[in-house]
C-alpha cells in the first residue's frame, strides 16, 4: 500500500496541511506512525513493536480474527439500515440484555458514544419533562454540542457553564474533600449532589438527569466509595430525574469482577439508562443505549421516529456479536481479573518503593501509556483485554526504571528548590527551559 511506504515526515506534513490542529496526535513532539495492530501490540512503519496500554477500544485485541471475519462475512452479504427486519440486530439486543439487569430491556443502536449520551439526554428530558442535568466535576461525556455542555472537562476551557448544568464534586477519596479516613465518604459525597440539586431547585430549575461514568475515568480513574451511586440515584429520583450510567470507557468486562462497572454498587442498583460505546465494536463504530420500558415509552409517545442511518446495521451488529463471543470463548473477563490483580499487587510494591508518582510516559520504551485527570498526573492503564501477565511484568519493570531515574532527578533539583522564595518553596514555578522539571511539579 502506497500510504504505508510514505516516510513519516511526509505523512506528518500532509496531516498538518489537511487536518485541523485540534485533532491532536499522541506524542506530538515525535508522533508515532502506526501501520499495523495485532492483539495488544501496535507496529510502526519501521516494524517496531509497541505494547499498547492506551486502547480500551481494541477491547479483545487489535484486528482480532473472529471479529474481522464476522465483519467480512456480513459485508459480503448485506449491509443496510435497520428499517428492514434482520436477525443480527435482534440477536445483538438479546445478547446485550443478558448482561444487564432485566429492567434495562430496550435498546437503541448508534455509531458513537457521543450519540448514545446525546440520545440518553433526549430520553431523560422527554420522560421527566425537565431540562437540567447534574454532572460530576472534570467529567467528559462526548463531543456533540449537547455533551460539551455537560462536560466540565471541556466547558471549563471554553468559559461557559450553561444555566441548566449543575456540577457536583468528584467522589474522590484520595484527593477530594472527603477522603479514606472520613467515616462515611459515600454519604458525604452523595449529600453534595443533594445540595447541588437543592440549590438548582431554589432557582426554579428542574432536574432531568444525573450523568456519570460508573468509574469516572476521564477525571483520573476515580473509584467512588461503595454506596455513593445508590444514594445519588435516590436524590436524583426524588427530584424527578433519571440516573444515566456512562459505561463507554469502563464497561464490557473491563473491570473483571463484573461485566458493567455500575454493578460494583450491588445487584439492587439499576441505572435508568446505560450508554455503551468504544470497546463494544472493537474499533468498528458501534454504540448502544439501554433503558427501561417506561423511559422508552415516553420517547415513543412523541410519535417522532428514531432513525439512525448506520446505527444497528447488520455489519455493526455482526461485529458486536463477535466481540461478545470472543469475550466468552477466551474468558477475557476472568483474564482481566487475574492480570488486574497482578498489576495492582506489583504497582503497590512500586508505590512503597518510590515516594514519587508523576507524569510518566513510556513511549521511548515502546510502551504506549497515557495520563489523565485534572492535573494530568494519573497514569492510566487501559490495554486490550488480552494484555498478559508477562506484559504487566514488563510494564512494571519499565515503570520502576523510570521512577528510579525521576527520583534521581528530583534529588538533583534540591539546589534549585533552595533558591525559591522563603516560605513558598514548592509554589515557585519550575525553571521554564527544562520540561523535565515541570513534570516533577505535577507530583501530588
Ligand atoms: C466517558 C466517555 N463518554 C463518552 C465518550 C464519547 O464517545 P465517542 O468518542 O465514541 O463519541 C467518551 C470518549 O472518549 C468517553 O470517554
UniProtKB/TrEMBL annotation:
<comment type="subunit">
    <text>Homotetramer.</text>
</comment>
<dbReference type="InterPro" id="IPR005814">
    <property type="entry name" value="Aminotrans_3"/>
</dbReference>
<dbReference type="GO" id="GO:0030170">
    <property type="term" value="F:pyridoxal phosphate binding"/>
</dbReference>
<dbReference type="GO" id="GO:0005739">
    <property type="term" value="C:mitochondrion"/>
</dbReference>
<dbReference type="GO" id="GO:0008483">
    <property type="term" value="F:transaminase activity"/>
</dbReference>
<keyword id="KW-0456">Lyase</keyword>
<dbReference type="GO" id="GO:0016829">
    <property type="term" value="F:lyase activity"/>
</dbReference>
<dbReference type="InterPro" id="IPR015422">
    <property type="entry name" value="PyrdxlP-dep_Trfase_small"/>
</dbReference>
<dbReference type="InterPro" id="IPR015424">
    <property type="entry name" value="PyrdxlP-dep_Trfase"/>
</dbReference>
<dbReference type="Pfam" id="PF00202">
    <property type="entry name" value="Aminotran_3"/>
</dbReference>
<dbReference type="InterPro" id="IPR015421">
    <property type="entry name" value="PyrdxlP-dep_Trfase_major"/>
</dbReference>
<keyword id="KW-0663">Pyridoxal phosphate</keyword>
<dbReference type="InterPro" id="IPR049704">
    <property type="entry name" value="Aminotrans_3_PPA_site"/>
</dbReference>
<comment type="similarity">
    <text>Belongs to the class-III pyridoxal-phosphate-dependent aminotransferase family.</text>
</comment>
<protein>
    <submittedName>
        <fullName>5-phosphohydroxy-L-lysine phospho-lyase isoform X3</fullName>
    </submittedName>
</protein>
Amino acid at each position: 500500500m502506497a500510504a504505508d511506504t510514505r516516510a513519516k515526515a511526509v505523512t506528518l506534513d500532509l496531516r498538518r496541511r489537511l487536518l485541523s490542529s485540534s485533532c491532536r496526535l499522541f506524542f506530538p513532539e515525535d508522533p508515532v506512525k502506526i501501520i499495523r495492530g495485532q492483539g495488544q501490540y501496535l507496529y510502526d512503519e519501521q516494524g517496531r513493536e509497541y505494547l499498547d496500554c492506551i486502547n480500551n477500544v481494541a477491547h479483545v485485541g487489535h484486528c482480532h480474527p473472529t471479529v474481522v471475519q464476522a465483519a467480512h462475512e456480513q459485508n459480503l452479504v448485506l449491509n443496510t439500515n435497520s428499517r428492514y427486519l434482520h436477525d443480527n440486530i435482534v440477536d445483538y439486543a438479546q445478547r446485550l440484555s443478558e448482561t444487564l439487569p432485566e429492567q434495562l430491556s430496550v435498546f437503541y443502536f448508534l455509531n458513537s458514544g457521543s450519540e448514545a449520551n446525546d440520545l440518553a439526554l433526549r430520553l431523560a428530558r422527554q420522560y421527566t419533562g425537565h431540562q437540567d442535568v447534574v454532572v460530576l466535576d472534570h467529567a467528559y461525556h462526548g463531543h456533540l454540542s449537547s455533551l460539551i455542555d455537560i462536560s466540565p472537562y471541556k466547558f471549563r476551557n471554553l468559559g461557559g457553564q450553561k444555566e441548566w448544568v449543575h456540577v457536583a464534586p468528584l467522589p474522590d477519596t484520595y484527593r477530594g474533600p472527603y477522603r479514606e479516613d472520613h467515616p462515611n465518604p459515600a454519604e458525604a459525597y452523595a449529600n453534595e449532589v443533594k445540595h447541588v440539586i437543592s440549590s438548582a431547585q431554589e432557582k426554579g430549575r428542574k432536574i432531568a438527569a444525573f450523568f456519570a461514568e460508573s468509574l469516572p475515568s476521564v477525571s483520573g480513574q476515580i473509584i467512588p466509595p461503595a454506596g455513593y451511586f445508590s444514594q445519588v440515584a435516590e436524590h436524583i429520583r426524588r427530584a424527578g430525574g433519571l440516573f444515566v450510567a456512562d459505561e463507554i470507557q469502563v464497561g464490557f468486562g473491563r473491570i473483571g469482577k463484573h461485566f458493567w462497572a455500575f454493578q460494583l454498587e450491588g445487584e439492587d442498583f439499576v441505572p435508568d439508562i446505560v450508554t455503551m460505546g468504544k470497546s463494544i465494536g472493537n474499533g468498528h463504530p458501534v454504540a448502544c443505549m439501554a433503558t427501561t420500558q417506561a423511559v422508552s415509552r415516553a420517547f415513543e409517545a412523541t410519535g417522532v421516529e428514531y432513525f439512525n442511518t448506520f446505527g444497528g446495521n447488520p455489519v455493526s451488529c455482526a461485529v458486536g456479536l463477535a466481540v461478545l463471543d470472543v469475550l466468552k470463548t477466551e474468558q477475557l473477563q476472568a483474564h482481566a481479573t487475574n492480570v488486574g490483580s497482578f498489576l495492582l499487587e506489583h504497582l503497590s510494591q512500586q508505590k512503597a518503593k518510590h515516594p514519587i508518582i508523576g507524569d510518566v510516559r513510556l513511549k521511548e520504551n515502546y510502551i504506549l501509556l497515557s495520563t489523565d485527570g485534572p492535573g494530568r498526573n494519573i497514569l492510566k492503564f487501559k490495554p486490550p483485554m488480552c494484555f498478559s501477565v508477562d506484559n504487566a511484568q514488563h510494564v512494571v519493570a519499565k515503570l520502576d526504571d523510570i521512577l528510579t531515574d525521576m527520583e534521581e532527578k528530583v534529588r538533583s533539583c534540591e539546589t534549585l528548590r533552595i533558591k525559591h522564595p522563603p516560605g513558598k518553596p514548592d509554589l515557585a514555578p519550575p525553571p521554564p527551559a527544562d520540561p523535565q522539571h515541570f513534570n516533577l511539579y505535577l507530583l501530588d
